[in-house]
Amino acid sequence: MTLVNRSAEPLVEILLATYNGGQYLSEQLDSLFAQTYKNWKLLVHDDGSVDDTLEIVRRYASREPGKITLVDDRYRAGGAKNNFAHLMSLATADYVSFCDQDDIWLPNKLECSIAALTESEARWGKDVPIAVFTDAKVVDAELEPVAPSLWQHQATSPGLAKSFRRLSIRNCVTGCTMMINRAALDNALPIPDVAVMHDWWIALTILKCQGVLRPIGRSTVLYRQHSSNAVGAQNHGFRRFMGKAARPIQMYREVVGGYLMAKQVGAYDNPGEYVLQKTKEIGRSMISSTSHE
To answer: Considering the domain boundaries, does residue 128 fall inside one?
Structure first.
C-alpha cells in the first residue's frame, strides 16, 4: 500500500453521531487528535443528549477552532442509523469516515484508510462508489482485551463483501472502521426506513452498482463493548443463536427486518429463499464460532 503524499492530503470528514455518550467521548476525541493523518474535520450531530456530551464536544471545539463543527438544529433522529444518515446529508468532503462515540481509533486509522481508498480510486476511478473497511480489536469498558479480532469474534468474514446476496444476509462491514468516497455517499442516500443500519445499507448499495468494497486485513479501532452497546460486538455463534431462539419475537423481527432491507436493495424478492439462505448463514457462523472456542 502506497502512503499518501503529505503535501497533497485530501480532506477527510469524520461523522460523529452522539447520544448520551459523555462517559467515553473524551477518549474517542483524544484518539482523533492523535491521528497521524492530520487533514480531517469532525462533524457532530447530537440526538438530544441529557448528559455532558454537548459540553464535552464544545470544549474540544473551542480548543481547536475550525476543526470541529457541532450541527445546531432541532432534528431528532431517534437512533444511530438516522443520526448518521442526517450527518451524511450534511457532509461536503470527498472522503467520509464514521465515528462511534465510545470507541478508540488507533493512531494510523485515517492514514491507512485514505491510502487504500485513494489507491482504489486511482485504479477504478473517482466516479465508482468505493469503501474500505478494517477489522477491530474488541475491548471491554476499561479497554481490557476481549477478542483480538471483531471478525472472528462475530464469526464473520470480510469475504462476505464479495457477494451482494451473501452480504444482504449478513453484514461484515462495521461502520466505525469504514471510509467511503463521495460517489459511495451520494449513491447510498437517502437511507430508507427499512435499512437495518447505515453501514450495512451503504455496503449493499455499493455492491448493487458494481462498486468496490475493499477490506484491509488489520485492526484500526478498539471496539468498546459495554452495557449500552454490547449487542454490537456479541459473538454470533452457537450461544448467541440459542439465546435468540429463546426469544422468538426478537428473532422474527431480525429476519423480517433483514428481508425487507434485502428486498428494497434488490437482493431478494422471495422471502422463503431469503429465510433459507439466512438459515444456512447461521449454520456457517455456528460452525465457525465453535471452531474458535
So the answer is: yes
